[in-house]
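Translate sequence into structure tokens.
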Amino acid sequence: MSKVKQEYSNHRHLVPSFHFLTLGALVVLLIGSVVYLFVASPWLLALLIIVMTLAITSIGLHARSFAIRAQDRAIRAEENLRYFILTGQRLNQSLSLPQIIALRFASDEEFVALTARALEQNMKPDEIKRAVKNWRPDYHRV
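Result follows.
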């Protein structure tokens, strides 16, 4: 993810593979289907089926990706709030999102200490998860 200073002129986020490729494929499908309605060519039908398959696959992959990204933002907010409730301070901003996501499994009793350890030792997410003694399950993950 780029760290370009965000302002009004650049705040919109386009996902080229979705906004151009997938939506473009859907427009091609619509136009091709209308043409096929009048022409009924077997090669055009085969091409439309290929484009449709690619578009549906892309929609499925992007739907999953977008849902996970939204969920990761929610986890970051939840863990920031939990840390604030437990310490009265904000969560250290130098923790990476994957580290924060891994820390969500720590019980309240070990969360603050494990957060400090993750910062000091620059622990990887898998190391953080392995260090959790009292696992706090997350049954709502997408």
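Note: The CA atoms of residues 23 and 68 lie 21 Å apart.
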